[in-house]
Design a protein that fits this description.
The structure holds 2 protein chains of 2 kinds. Chain A is built from 4 helices and no strands. By secondary structure, chain A is mostly helical. Chain B folds into 2 domains: 94 residues, Rna Polymerase Sigma Factor, Chain: A; 91 residues, Winged helix-like DNA-binding domain superfamily/Winged helix DNA-binding domain (Arc Repressor Mutant, subunit A), CATH 1.10.10. Chain B is built from 10 helices and no strands. By secondary structure, chain B is mainly α. In chain B, helix 9 packs across helix 10. Classes of the chains: A mainly alpha, B mainly alpha.
């Protein structure tokens, strides 16, 4: 069966009427209470953070981790008796002959 | 003017909710529940309407701070409802098998009856309205979620393409292309159903 444009138009019209006439259920009694109960469980309204607020909060969170990391690094440096290069250079300039690598602390 | 007044009232209620008066949200639920049920009821099966409408209000509440007087609350809520229905169909299509079988003899007869009728005889009083609705549901099930939503809004509800695009968060061009494709697809499905009779 080959359909003409008119046939399609009729089918479209019938479908449009059917779609518009579709029965739609209304809210049952107490439905709004259910919604409110669900919202009460969430308690706080999630705030929308601006970019800068978010960055501020993030840096606060990171700063505590950074402090712990710095502390650990300091302990580690003390443990291995770390001597910075500028101190080695200073010693070798002050006492160029006497100082050997074996005497340089930490080397 | 009353529309404008109502919008100002909504803004005031929203301001109070954001300030912590959660119970004020009840005013918005009661005010818009029928409207949202009507929208959701047009797009999803009736046994899902309550749940989807519930989801719409929860989503609206969760993103209320992002509303911040963006304009009309009703329009904003409508967009949430439409997007929730669209998300429902996307989820539904992922989880189910789309029936590929052709329609039965009975349904084919209804299609023939529609074609045989004069255009002005096709009214809401048509005796087999329920059957046409079932046929439409079967045909829509063969479209993609996007095609389905666009066809329903732009064609059956006759909303302007710009408004459909606005509600779905699409471009107008995408809506127009999708509408063209979905109508073509719908016609193809119907002609296939009628062709199956010979096979």
């Amino acid at each position: 069966m080959r359909l003409s444009k008119e046939d399609y138009r009729k089918i479209d019209k019938a479908f449009t009427i059917a779609y518009r006439e579709k029965e739609k259920p209304g809210p049952a009694e107490g439905w709004a209470n259910k919604v409110m109960e669900a919202l009460q469980k969430q308690k706080l309204l999630p705030s929308s953070l601006s970019y800068w607020d978010f960055l501020g909060q993030l840096s606060w969170a990171i700063s505590s981790v950074a402090c712990v990391f710095i502390g650990l690094l300091m302990v580690l440096m003390l443990k291995i008796d770390f001597v910075p290069e500028n101190e080695i250079a200073k010693v070798s300039f002050d006492q160029p002959i006497e100082v050997s690598y074996l005497e340089i602390p930490g080397v | 003017m009353p529309e404008k007044l109502s919008s100002i009232e909504d803004d005031e209620v929203i301001r109070r909710i954001i300030n912590g008066e959660i119970n004020e949200f009840r005013h918005l639920v009661l005010k818009y529940q029928s409207y949202i049920f009507n929208i959701v009821g047009s797009h999803v099966p009736h046994y899902w309407v309550e749940e989807i409408a519930h989801e719409v209000f929860v989503k609206a509440y969760q993103s209320l701070t992002s509303f911040k007087n963006q304009g009309d609350f009703k329009h904003w809520l409508t967009a949430i409802a439409i997007k929730t229905c669209y998300a429902f169909w996307r989820k539904e299509y992922r989880c189910r098998e789309i029936p590929m079988s052709s329609c039965g003899e009975e349904e084919r007869d209804y299609l023939k009856k529609i074609i045989a009728q004069k255009s002005n005889q096709l009214t809401r009083e048509t005796s087999f309205q329920q059957e046409i609705q079932e046929l439409l549901d079967r045909a829509l099930a063969r479209l993609s979620p996007g095609e389905r939503m666009v066809l329903e809004m732009a064609y059956f509800e006759e909303l302007p393409a710009k408004e459909v695009a606005d509600l779905l968060g699409w471009t107008v061009t995408r809506v127009k292309v999708c509408l063209f494709r979905s109508r073509k697809k719908l016609h193809k499905i119907i002609s296939q159903w009628l062709k199956d009779e010979r096979g």
